[in-house]
Design brief:
Elements (H helix, E strand, L loop, with lengths): L29 H16 L7 H23 L4 E2 L9 E2 L5 H15 L2 H16 L10 H28 L1 H7 L4 H4 L4 H22 L2 H18 L11 H28 L8 H20 L5 H6 L5 H5 L1 H24 L4 H23 L6 H21 L5
Antiparallel strand pairs: 1-2
Helix pairs in contact: 4-5, 4-10, 4-16, 5-8, 5-9, 5-10, 8-9, 9-10, 10-11, 11-14, 11-16, 14-15, 15-16
Length: about 400
């Protein structure tokens, strides 16, 4: 699992050379398939065994990465040792500066933690906690302590979930996300297992000593669904099934986060009846739309690796462009509903903020969507991060819905 092994094939010297670098992240694989067919036709002419299309794509990908490494090594030849002729790997001299070593470790953990998901988790808990606040005196040390306990416990569980997903997808990430620590080789499997096990234990330990039923329930359900989503054992690895994968993300991001963490503050911290107010119902419904969009959109930049390893996502089945515009349509419907909810607000300040805020977000979404180059993986990934920013912005608006 730690290395992507592709066997080499002997080739007569009279064969024409082929480019080592190929854009594997193109939304269409037509050019790659054509090149694959041309290569196999030439091989047949000279009696060379043909290779499968899957191995061809992987060979091209490895070749492209090696070309980039060699180019980088030439820029910093004073720090890199390269022996291409003897087949030795590219190695960097270890840093002797403790600060550089610490910085590198923190950077690797930062990427391993998938920070955009951590930010979303923290903002969502703060936002739904504020929905339980009814008067100014509710902003007490008790409230701040209860909210902080929920944030830390959820953060620990978030690291477990995203870490397990990377541990289960090492080979796929070598194609789709080679910058992640496991895919790049910065983390060994043993290191990743130690990290995710430690954070899972700390999450449950904190949830247990706090003694909040809703909080512990949120952690347990997130653990079960996150494990079933990623782990590669019989009957699990639900991410292989597009509809079930979307349901997992919806359950955690839309239902568990809104309802369980709200009840943690409302019932456990404040000791009030477990009643779901209009803002809580709105937040759950709106984030259900948003969670479906995130579940669909996250696979758009990863279509190449998903195709190679048999992940039947909606993007693989329907194509990038169709899924892209389905996501935009779902979000625009959600914003329209939010505007209508704002019109029914009992307070004028709530009405103005809710309507104006969602009109602004809907306009920004449409403006950005029209300019996205669906032929560029970098552009699609950048827009995916923009959707997460809209996700964050919504949690700033939710407490104003009254």
């Amino acid at each position: 699992m730690e290395s992507l092994f592709v066997g080499s094939l002997a080739k007569p010297s009279i064969l024409p050379s082929f480019p080592a670098k190929v854009d594997l992240f193109s939304p269409s694989s037509g050019a790659q398939v054509l090149r694959f067919k041309e290569r196999n036709n030439l091989d047949k002419q000279f009696g060379v065994p043909s290779i499968s299309q899957k191995k061809f794509l992987l060979c091209q990908h490895v070749g492209a990465r090696y070309t980039r490494l060699v180019a980088l090594s030439r820029k910093g030849s004073d720090k890199c040792l390269v022996n291409a002729a003897s087949g030795q790997p590219l190695e960097s001299e270890p840093s002797k500066d403790p600060l550089n070593t610490l910085q590198g470790s923190l950077d690797a953990f930062y990427r391993f933690s998938r920070p955009h998901t951590v930010i979303g988790t923290v903002l969502s808990i703060i936002s739904v906690s504020l929905l339980a606040v009814e008067k100014l005196s509710d902003f007490s040390p008790l409230f701040l302590t209860g909210m902080s306990e929920a944030i830390v416990a959820a953060f620990f569980m978030n690291i477990y979930i995203v870490g397990l997903n990377q541990l289960s997808d090492i080979d796929i990430d070598k194609v789709n996300k080679p910058y992640l620590p496991l895919a790049s080789g910065e983390y060994s499997i043993k290191t990743a297992v130690t990290i995710i096990a430690s954070f899972a234990i700390m999450s449950f330990w904190l949830g247990w000593i706090v003694g909040s039923g809703p909080l512990f329930c949120a952690l347990f359900v997130s653990f079960v669904l996150g494990t079933a989503y990623s782990i590669n054992v019989p009957l699990l690895r639900w991410k292989r099934f597009a509809f079930v994968a979307a349901l997992c993300i919806l359950a955690v991001r839309a239902v568990i986060v809104q309802l369980a963490f709200y009840l943690h503050i409302q019932s456990f911290v404040f000791g009030r009846p477990a009643l779901f107010s209009k803002p809580v119902i709105f937040a759950t419904a709106f984030m259900s739309f948003f969670s479906v969009v995130i579940a669909l959109f996250k696979d758009i930049p990863d279509i190449v690796g998903d195709k190679i390893y048999g992940i039947r996502s909606f993007t693989v089945r329907l194509g990038q462009e169709k899924v892209f515009w389905i996501c935009i349509a779902l979000l625009q419907i959600a914003y329209l509903v939010a505007i209508l909810v704002g019109m029914t607000a009992s307070q004028n300040w709530s009405k103005v903020i809710t309507i104006a805020g969602h009109i602004l977000l809907a306009s920004m979404l449409w403006s950005q969507a029209k300019s996205v180059d669906l032929g560029s993986k970098a552009a699609i990934t950048s827009f995916y991060m923009f959707i997460w920013k809209l996700f964050y912005a919504e949690y700033f608006l939710i407490p104003f819905v009254r």
